Amino acid sequence: MGRVTERRKVIRIRDGVVSSRPDTLVAEEPLEIRLNGRPLAITMRTPGDDFALAAGFLVSEGVLAAASDLQNIVYCAGATADGSNTYNVVDVRTAPEVVLPDITLERNVYTTSSCGLCGKASLDAVRTTARFPIADTPPVRVDPGLLASLPDRLRAAQRVFDRTGGLHAAALFTEDGELVDIREDVGRHNAVDKLVGRALQSGDLPLSRSILLVSGRASFELAQKAVMAGIPMLAAVSAPSSLAVDLAAETGLTLVGFLRGSSMNVYAGEDRIALRAAAAQG
């Protein structure tokens, strides 16, 4: 089975001194996701939590919404010419009553570790397939000071990043700032899928009182995944894309970017941020 990290020889140059040494790298391998035996998608990911990744991917696709929708997930033996199991192909079997949306059956997609489902979904598609309307969730109100403390807590929990320096992370926090779960992966969208998939398997969807924090930028795909999981607040340490902001405004998602130190930009859903508290502190 694939490993999270691998060792490679590297030539190191420091202050004019050349040396040879092994270096620890994050592993990256393809994962093919099949749905009821039919190939659906391939993503480049860090091995580990593959079943959760597949389940979370299908939540964002509008296929799964509850643990009862999922019959089982298995690695596919015989995926290679010699019949061996590479642990790089999984088959997701849905419950008989699950209705498969046309958008899933009509396409076969390749997703990279950087962009997610490139060019796949529109704002209308997300609105029509979302099972957990964020506007209908109980009110969540977060102090800016609490938000400002989350990136350091995310970074402190990144165990593999400390060894490789090459992983994105995504974490779920409660509205009170308690760390619920964290996942690392070469792709930030994979890390989010692993979080959401684990929540689905545990029967915890929708995540209607959660804060999702990601270590990089907030793309449309990440905003989409938050909306599909019923997460009311997405925060990123870097910039959001214009389409992510549009989706947040359309769906009621609170979107925070450039969350660094005590500074942040709120792009949508500012009603969930205690702005008066921030003004008083300023």
List keywords for this structure.
single chain; 282 residues; alpha/beta; Ubiquitin-like (UB roll); Cytidine Deaminase, domain 2; 2 domains; six-stranded mixed beta sheet; five-stranded mixed beta sheet; 13 strands
| Helix segment tally | 9
- Order of strands, main sheet, comes to 9-8-10-11-12-13
Helix content: 25-40%
The H-and-E topology, N to C, reads as EEEEHEEHEHHHEEHEHEHEEH
Structural class from helices and strands? alpha/beta
Largest sheet data: 6 strands, mixed
Mean pLDDT across every amino acid position: 84
Beta-strand percent range = 25-35%
Number of domains: 2
Looking at CATH, the homologous superfamily of the largest domain is Cytidine Deaminase, domain 2
Unreliable stretches (pLDDT < 50, length at least 5) are 103-108, 112-121
CATH architecture of the largest domain: 3-Layer(aba) Sandwich
Number of strands: 13
Global morphology? flat
Structural account:
The model is unreliable at 103-108 and 112-121 (pLDDT under 50). The chain is α/β, with parallel strands linked by helices. The protein folds into two domains: 29-122, Ubiquitin-like (UB roll) (Roll); 135-281, 3-Layer(aba) Sandwich (Cytidine Deaminase, domain 2), CATH 3.40.140.10. α1 crosses α7 (220-228), α6 runs parallel beside α7 (220-228) and α7 runs parallel beside α8 (242-251). The strands form three sheets. It has a six-stranded mixed beta sheet with strand order 9-8-10-11-12-13, with helices on both faces. It has a five-stranded mixed beta sheet with strand order 5-6-3-4-7, with helices on one face. It is built from nine helices and 13 strands.
